[in-house]
Amino acid sequence: MRRGLAALRDAAGWQSHMIITITLNPAVDETVEVDRLVTADTNRVVAIRRDIGGKGVNVARVLRELGYEPLAMGFAPGRFGGMIEEQLTDEGIGCDFIPYPGETRTNINIVDRSVHQSTVLAAPGPVVPPEAIDRLSRHLHRRIRRDTCLVFAGSMPPGMEVTFHAEALDRVQALGAMSVLDADGPVVEQVFALGAQPTILSSSELVTLVHGLGVPPGHLHVIEAHPRRASENTETLRRAVGHPGLSVVIAVRECVETVKRGKREKPSAAAGEVRP
């Protein structure tokens, strides 16, 4: 969705679309800050905060901030799942989440202030029971119409199969509605292997593809998907959505491993070592 949101401007009358975001694996993101992280020892926490998360949830919140009225759907297990739904409702976002036994995963981000580095502990999420999948499928089936834009964003929890994506995308296509798929490579490959065809697909080659389609360079925006760019990115999205013609926004972010490797190599480079 991050890469496809502004491209929806190409659809006639898209402002009237009901945008449904699907979050199959929601999360509570807990950020813990320490002055200096010391392994195998007790670390004193200097700041802590909790935020609701999951890609689909984040998409719904951005859409609401831009003035749209999305419907957030998906799973919301346990007490944290109820907290996510309650906060979205407080923000004016419609919800249709399916609860089930277990607890919504918590991702822990440990921030070391001394070196400005983060260590993320990502949980897989609870196993989804078949009856919860069936309920979500029925709810979604009733809501998909010709004026729907369906957004699949984020990871899958244990117990889910890609057939869920494929069946929903097939229904969207049959009705002539729109769909967005922002998922990991293996999920995308399986979706296509099952014959499903989303309207908009995230891809590492998206910039080249969009250029080749003839999108005016002045209306192709590549933004850095990072929290420190939130205000700047929101303004870019506002301009793109307000443009009367086609406008495309593509979000990119440098690979975490590439950043880490670059930091490890800096001392050697400073000492004059030449790397191939």
Describe the structure in your own words.
With 276 residues, this protein is of the alpha/beta class. It has two domains: 6-27 and 54-105 and 126-202, Ribokinase (UDP-N-acetylmuramoyl-L-alanine:D-glutamate ligase, 3-Layer(aba) Sandwich); 203-276, no CATH class. It is built from eight helices and twelve strands. The strands form three sheets. The protein has a six-stranded parallel sheet, with helices on both faces. The chain has a four-stranded mixed sheet with strand order 3-2-6-7. Strand 9, helix 5 and strand 10 form a beta-alpha-beta unit. The longest helix has 15 residues, at 256-270. The model is unreliable at 1-14 and 268-276 (pLDDT under 50).
Topology (SSEs and partners):
Layout: E1 18-23, E2 27-34, E3 45-53, H1 55-65, E4 71-75, H2 78-90, E5 94-98, E6 105-112, E7 117-121, H3 130-143, E8 148-153, H4 163-175, E9 178-182, H5 185-193, E10 200-201, H6 206-212, E11 220-224, H7 230-242, E12 248-252, H8 256-270
Parallel strand pairs: 1-4, 1-8, 2-6, 4-5, 8-9, 9-10, 11-12
Antiparallel strand pairs: 2-3, 6-7
In a few lines, what is going on in this structure?
By secondary structure, this protein is an alpha/beta fold. Helices cover 34% and strands 25% of the residues.
